[in-house]
Amino acid sequence: MTNNPWEQALAELEKAASHTKVSKALLERLKTPDRVIEVTVPVVMDDGRTQVFHGYRVQHNNMRGPYKGGLRYHPKVNMDEVKALSFWMTMKNAIVGVPFGGGKGGITVDPKTLSEGELERLTRAFTRELTPYIGPELDIPAPDVNTNAKIMAWMRNEYARATGKDAPAVVTGKPIEKGGSEGRTEATGLGGFYVLAEIMKQTGRRKSGASVAIQGFGNVGKYLANYLKDAGFRIVALSDSKGGMYVKSGIPDLKAVAECKERSGKLAGCYCVGSVCDLSNMEALGGRDITSLETLTLPVDIAVPAALENAITKENAADVQAGIVLEMANGPTTREADEILKKKHTLVIPDVLANSGGVAVSYYEWYQNMHGETWKKDVVFKKLKRKMEGAARTVHEASKEYDVSLRDAAYIVALMRLAEA
Question: In the structure, what pLDDT confidence band is assigned to residue 2 with cuts at 50, 70 and 90?
């Protein structure tokens, strides 16, 4: 077996289907994306030379509504990854109960090597290539890895220039002043918190004082950490791609850590006591430096892969000590690792449930744009809480009914809803 994400997605589909009576026609349709778009994107760089980038958009399935899913800018973006991510979006939208199908896209690029002008020209050129295939009732992109509200604003503007009409709902995850929804920035992390709390409630697990290690301290990991800490969880480890920190008693000031990372560009060394954040505080806090991979094998109650796929593999799954793995990244656990964790009786809360808060609030943003409405943050969060807790309960009930893992149960729920469509 390999760690090819598309093969993993198909294997998850087959496994879930074995517990249901869904038709072979439905399964065959889900095994093949509706449309695969691959484009070359030439961009004039700041030094005058033209560089060609490769872009992708996969529209997996639209039986439940328009295609919906993010765009990522990353050096490892490739067709198999985007196909798998689009499939997972189809499943995720069905599980969380929003009227969308699944899509995903990206550009093979390290955006950290581009100036802001180059990034904008790349985004606008890519949008022009996608314009015939996207639209408020056709396919609605959103931010993902290394993309953000500013990039979505460029896309909305370029789509309007290309089509001659402004369509706020063509993308979600926009800045508030450009038609974005309040609460969208926090949505994925907050949704993960709601799911974790509900699953722990359903399984009778103690929340107060539970220790948490989070791999990935971008938008998702940062907000999740804060919501967990506010609810009485103990955040003992944080890491990014350059390393991180482990403080057994709990990291005291997450806001100071986030500000330190913003200044220095990395988490390593951000041991904060008061306004001072540096290595000199490490001993006083009883902390130590860790690698990104080490984050997931620490002696904690909950491990959270919140970065990229294939974080837990057959090489390190046996070393995972956490009783719960909360998958906030897409596809962070390989098939082999999943089997190892199951034998260890580790409770894995799957990505297609755990990180679906982002698309739930993307749906709220799209709805507000389509109906000319504007909702306050507290309204968005109340709706999100109900939706995420409801999805968590439905998946947990299916896991008991079919005597399967939460991952298999989530796919069963999705398949049944797709069959109804």
Answer: low
pLDDT digits (tens, 9 = 90+) for 340-358: 999 999 999 999 999 999 9
- Report the amino acid identity of residue 371: H
How many whole angstroms separate alpha carbon 110 and alpha carbon 187?
Answer: 25
Q: Residue 337's domain spans which residues? A: 187-354
Q: Can you tell me the distance from the alpha carbon of 35 to that of 133, in angstroms, rounded to the nearest whole number?
A: 10
Whole-angstrom Cα Rg for the chain: 21
68, 83, 92, 104: which one is catalytic?
104
Domain assignment present for residue 244? The answer is yes
104 is catalytic: yes
**Alpha-carbon 128 to chain mean position:** 26
List, for residues 267-316, the tens digit of each pLDDT value: 988 999 887 888 888 988 989 999 999 999 999 999 999 998 889 999 99
Q: Domains in the chain: how many in total?
A: 2
Tokens 């997605």 -> residue = 9
Instruction: Tell me the backbone φ, ψ of residue 385, rounded to 5 degrees.
Output: -60, -50
Q: Residue 139 sits in a domain of what CATH number?
A: 3.40.50.10860
Statement: the pTM of the whole predicted model exceeds 0.85: yes
**Cβ within 8 Å of residue 320, ≥6 positions away:** 296, 297, 303, 312, 341, 344, 346
Task: Please identify, among 119, 135, 168, the residue that sits at the C-terminal boundary of a domain.
Answer: 168
Tokens describing residue 412: 């069963």
How far is residue 156's CA from residue 71's CA, in Å, rounded to a whole number? 14
